[in-house]
Amino acid sequence: MHTYTPLTSSLTNTSYMAQMKKFAIRPLGDRVVVKPGEKGVEKKLASGIIIPPSANKEQPMTGEVIAVGPGKYEEGELVPMSLKIGDQVLFAKYGYEEIKLEGVEYYILSESSVLAVIGK
What we know:
This protein has about 120 residues and is mainly beta. The protein has one helix spanning about 15-20, and strands spanning about 1-5, 30-35, 45, 50, 60-70, 70-75, 75-80, 90, 95-100, 105-110, 115-120. It starts with a strand and ends with a strand.
């Protein structure tokens, strides 16, 4: 895991749009920055057996898109991103870079690692 300390002020007490303007990481190409959702909770079966979240390692993860790159070039043409800031997404459990910014965990992944947009 990489840890970055930005030169900007804390993101916790500003409006959502101000956060986006001050967000210290700007993804390149077809990459997005995702703030992961709940990592899971343990399940208790009727028999009393407790199944920890780590038992579901193969399930995809969810999160919110925080920043979006410009897109990628194919045959000299810029292909724009289909994701936008604020989208709730389902993405592959593996294939992302994990970073920590001001104590908050984020993932950087390519748009192709996103499996679906949830809702909307």
